[in-house]
C-alpha cells in the first residue's frame, strides 16, 4: 500500500488539479493507496477546497507550524508500506512517482529522492539552494544532489523512531544515512508555479543553515561529543597561552602599555562568547531531541482529521 503525503499552506487553487493527477497516477500502479493532505494552518480557502476532494484524508492543524511538522504528522498518520512525499504547489509532477518506486525496488533502497535538475524557480531561490547544497555536501555529504526536493519515496520503517522538527525536512536523507539506510536519487520533472506564492523566505533559509549544523554535529559527534568540545577547549587554551605570551612580550620587552586599549579584551571576549553560544546551541538541540523523543510531545497541534472515501 502507498501513502501519498502532501503538506499544504494557502494553496487552494492548485489542490483540485494536483489531487486529480495523484489519483490517476496511483490508479495506474494498480495498488492500494491513500492520499493525505496536511493543512498547515492555511488562512485562505484551502481547507474548504480539500473537503470536496475524494478520496482524501485531511489532517488539519490549529495554526501554521511549518512544512517539517506537516510532514511529520502525515508520516505518523500514514498506513502504507511505502510513503511518498510531495509539495502541494503543483511543481512536483505525480507522474514521476512510478519511476521513484521502480528504482526503490530495483536497487533495493530505503529511500529514493527526486532531483530537480531543471528547476523552474526564480534565480535567487536556485542560487541560495545551490549554496546550501554545497555547504551540506561539505559538512555531511549525504550523496543526494537535491535534498530540498520534497518528491521522495520511503519505506515506512525509515521513520519508525524518527521525529521531525524545526526545518529538518531538508535533511531527512542525511539523517537516514547516519542511521544506516540506503538511498538513491533519480531525475524528476519540475513545473513552474502557476498560482499562490512561494513559502521560502530568508528566515527559513537561516533556520535551514542552523539545522544543517545540527545535523552535522549529530553526524560527526553524537557518540563522541568530547572530541568536539574537548578539541575546542584545548584550542582555546593554546590560543590563550599564545595571547598571554604576546602580551607579556609587549609589556616587559617592548615596555608598551596595554591599559589604554580594549581591542585585545574585545577580541577574546567576543570569541569566547561566540563559542559558548554555539556550544549551548548544540547542547540545547540535544535536550530538545531528548525531550520530544522521551515525552512523546510533538511541536504541533492537530485540530481535526477528516476522511472522504
Class from secondary-structure proportions: alpha/beta
Helix count equals 9
Mean pLDDT value: 82
Main sheet characteristics: 8 strands, mixed
What's the total count of β strands? 8
Strand order within the widest sheet?
Answer: 7-5-6-4-1-2-3-8
Which spans of ≥5 residues are poorly predicted at pLDDT below 50? none
Structure description:
The protein is of the alpha/beta class. It folds into two domains: 2-202 and 304-308, Alpha-Beta Complex (Spore Coat Polysaccharide Biosynthesis Protein SpsA, Chain A); 221-295, no CATH class. The protein has nine helices and eight strands. An eight-stranded mixed sheet has the order 7-5-6-4-1-2-3-8, with helices on both faces. Strand 1, helix 1 and strand 2 form a beta-alpha-beta unit. Helix 5 (123-139) runs parallel beside helix 7 (202-221) and helix 8 packs antiparallel against helix 9 (263-295). The longest helix has 33 residues, at 263-295. It starts with a strand and ends with a strand. The model has no long low-confidence stretch (mean pLDDT 82).
